[in-house]
Write a structure and sequence with these properties.
α3 packs across α4, α10 runs antiparallel to α11 and α13 packs across α14. The longest helix is centred in the first third of the chain and has 43 residues. The two termini are 39 Å apart. By secondary structure, the protein is an all-alpha fold.
Length: 333
């Protein structure tokens, strides 16, 4: 009975999955490089496939041209806008700190600030801002990680056909059974995790653009810093909208009082409705339609194990696990 259990394909699959999970957790110090490489490779591969259908030129030339364009745009953006954005984020943090440490005449406002302090929401905001500032000020480490990730993804796409052919040789090797399981998980991972990350990026960009335009109309200061904050928080499903409302309402009250706060709430609710009823159904798989309780539960545990990155990759990883377990919504056609 025990021998049959050990020899069963289901047990092998579970064992290999657990081993892969342990290895990934052991490499969590390299999580930045791993995720950047995967995300760049996945997105650039999608871009190259799209362009190759429109432009009939050699694939390698198309890959090199695409990467050269992306690197040029990134370099130009960093040189021109990085000092301004860092300065605006610093001013934004100072403004929020002054608000939290000051006493207000409005009793309701004082009550809200006290409740926020009780649930230590300022600690989460501080960690988020510290994460952003660390990444954008420690440009040497961050830039090196981006460069290595770009180079690895470039080499992968340049040699993609050869890599596929070489990897297929493991099918007839002595580790064929292990390779079959790794191939199964890899295909599931690319199909679910990659596409959910891609959808989250698109939603975050649209959310950032619409929110920044709304804040510009309302006369908000430090739009560069706010747009960066909104973009990163937009990568966090559900919770990102709630967290972003806290600094936005504080700034709104500081510059225009209760009416500006009301306008911000209305703008965010409209943008969130666009995200929930238009973007999510068209970009996300039906399996990502998780209950809010599950969403927050996944975010809490993923943040605990992987820090701020966990807030971004928690839901895609959970969707990947659901896909592996073949958990589907039977009500969906």
């Amino acid at each position: 009975m025990i021998n049959k259990l050990f020899q069963s394909s289901g047990f092998k699959r579970i064992l290999i999955f657990a081993l892969m999970a342990i290895i990934i957790y052991a490499l969590k110090d390299m999580i930045n490089l791993i995720l950047f490489t995967f995300i760049f490779t996945f997105l650039m591969d999608r871009l190259v496939i799209f362009l190759s259908k429109k432009i009939p030129i050699n694939r390698k030339i198309l890959v090199i041209t695409s990467y050269a364009t992306v690197v040029s745009l990134l370099t130009w953006g960093l040189i021109k806008y990085l000092p301004m954005i860092v300065g605006e984020i610093t001013q934004l943090i100072k403004q929020l700190t002054v608000f939290y440490t000051s006493k207000h005449d409005n009793m309701i406002l004082n009550f809200i600030v006290n409740r926020l302090e009780e649930i230590q929401i300022s600690n989460y905001l501080e960690r988020g801002f510290t994460f952003i500032i660390t990444y954008f000020t420690d440009i040497s480490t961050f830039g090196l990680q981006i460069l290595i990730a770009l180079l690895m993804s470039l080499f992968f796409l340049l040699e993609k056909p050869r890599l596929i052919e070489f990897t297929k040789k493991f099918k007839t090797s002595k580790v064929a059974s292990i390779y079959a399981e790794i191939e199964f998980f890899s295909s599931k991972f690319v199909r679910t995790f990659g596409k959910v990350i891609e959808a989250q990026l698109i939603i975050a960009v649209v959310n950032c653009v619409l929110t920044t335009i709304s804040l510009w109309i309302l006369g908000f200061p430090q739009l560069g810093g706010l747009s960066i904050m909104i973009f990163f928080l937009g990568l966090i499903p559900v919770a990102g909208v709630i967290i972003s409302l806290i600094p936005l309402t504080i700034i709104a009250y500081s510059i225009g009082g209760i009416m500006t706060v009301l306008y911000v709430f209305i703008a965010i609710m409209i943008i969130h409705a666009i995200e929930a009823y238009i973007l999510n159904p068209n970009l996300m798989s039906s399996k990502t339609n998780l209950p809010v309780f599950y969403t927050f539960l996944v975010l809490i545990f993923s943040e605990h194990f992987f820090g701020v990155w966990g807030l971004i990759i928690g839901i895609p990883v959970f969707v990947f696990i659901l896909d592996v377990l073949e958990v589907t919504d039977n009500d969906k056609v």
